[in-house]
Amino acid sequence: MMKRLNRVLLCNDDGIDAPGMAVMERLARYIAEEIWIVAPTQDRSGVSNSLSLREPIRIIRRGDHRYAVYGTPADCVAFAIEHLMRDTPPDLLLSGVNSGSNLGFETILSGTVGAAMTGALLGVPSIGLSQVRKPGGPMRWQTAEDHGVFVIHTLLKATWTPHVCLSVNFPDINSEDVKGMKITTQGMGSVKGVSVVPVIDPTGEEYYWMRIKRGAPEDHESSEAFAVDNGYIAVTPLDHERTSAESRNALLEALSSIHQS
Question: How many domains does the chain have?
């Protein structure tokens, strides 16, 4: 049995009262002596790692080491690490368990991953965890709950680059059918774009919903989407560095040819 951590910080983007936070708290009890929960008051999915730089955030204390924040997941992490826990920082940040996947392009939009990225930026080892669910299907929380402690303990035995966070996706299958764990690449996933859906309210005024367009993933075998579709828990190390090496080289070559002409 791995030695328990002193303290762990929990966050999410589904809100402090979301069922995934209850799963995360149960997992954390096997991992750390002291658990801190600092999470949004309500669902803040899709806000990535945005910070509330132009407005204040307000806090509601929900009990010992438990705080609800009127802000983004990144606000929650920054408030916890830089203020609440400044003198006794967490050994680990766990973000999630998210209700739904964070695969491919979804990781750029995700508040779950955004919280983990913010934790990594502030020097705390950080892991985002998500339970994949197909549209209209059941939410298989038990899969994340049964495998979560093993996954976290396994990852903590390794080391990863500072300012890198790990994104874990549990497949949408029953717990006993999970084949194992794979270290994966991000890939593109199923996101194909964004649509704007107009709706008329009872007064006749128009308002709009933003919706993600999806299609079949076309990722290679090393991608996280391929892994979860084939029954594996996917673990992807994510960095803030998003430079495309291929495009950078093409631009350098174009610029060089201009200078030579």
Answer: 1
